[in-house]
Amino acid sequence: MGTYENAPWPAGVWKRHLADAVVEPSELLEILGLAGCPPFETPGAARRFPLRVPRGFVARMGEGDPSDPLLLQVLPTENEDIPSQGFTTDPVGELANPPTNGLLRKYHGRALLLVTGACAVNCRYCFRRHFPYPDLGSKRGELEAAFSALAADPKITELILSGGDPLLASEERLAEITRGVSRLPQLQRLRIHTRLPIVLPQRVDGPLMSWIGGLGVPLVVVVHVNHANEIDDDVRRALAALTSRGVTLLNQTVLLRGVNDSVEAQVALGEALFDAGVLPYYLHMLDPVEGAAHFEVPEEEARQLYRDLKRRLPGYLVPRFVREVPGAPSKIDIFDSFER
């Protein structure tokens, strides 16, 4: 894999940032001037789902603010230890029809490939926080079998790379994906769901830009931003670089209590995304994953927020308001088109 002269960061610098991520809650609180805050003494939650957050993302948090919307997304808290009815370890029913060779088929015409179980940041509300990646994720040597299965199914016209975060894959693994894509003449698009351009923008380096240029199919990158404060100058540089390569940029957001459950926060997010060259795509209701019930926004409250959002923003900045229902043939629109 070659280099790309206009990449915003040198090759491989992202790996140093990844290795230097904050992994101890006590260090994160110390950095933010919150050491000793009683609500954050959470050894149980941190053991079950460890903290991991790049320092560049930490730098966007407000010092001395225990309710900072970025901090709340990543810091383990005692709320995760409270059982809640209806919240499970498999909230979207993926284990009912588990992946084969890392390949999930949930929707007509599309297939999802779990490229890796690794992430640069551990989001506390992640619907796959309990997913058994060692057993069901795509393993070394299985990509060949996955692409053979895709090549035998001409109905699959879009491949979605997911994880974990697929952009944490090595250059060798990305090159293997390129070879697999070249075997799928029916493929109309490749889609990548990733948080890396947001939490670790240095990932958009020369080798990645070259990889994108060699794919041979249109690329859609769906990033994940929940709050306008997540978008800083480095993020804008990374997104602009992707756009310069012809990538279509969309965003998905999860509605989270205490993080973005106000019209003002959602309006600011939509405007910030547009300024960064990204169109809002999905606003998700929280998937009922065990350990995240404290993020839930009641549905009627969420519907009212969405009504107000539609009144405040032009249509192209209003994401679809959806939820994932196990076994459903597509995401379910929560806000009926006839509703006023």
Commentary on this structure:
- There is one protein chain.
- A hairpin with a 5-residue loop joins β1 and β2 (110-116).
- The protein has helices at 13-19, 25-31, 43-48, 55-58, 71-74, 133-136, 143-151, 171-181, 196-199, 206-213, 233-244, 263-275, 299-312; strands at 103-104, 110-116, 158-163, 189-193, 219-224, 248-254, 279-284, 320-323, 332-333.
- The chain has 13 helices and 9 strands.
- A 9-stranded mixed beta sheet has the order 1-2-3-4-5-6-7-8-9.
- It is 30% helix and 13% strand.
- It has a single domain, classed as Aldolase class I (TIM Barrel, Alpha-Beta Barrel).
- The chain is globular.
- It is α/β, with parallel strands linked by helices and 340 residues long.
List its salient traits.
340 residues; alpha/beta; 13 helices; 13% strand; globular
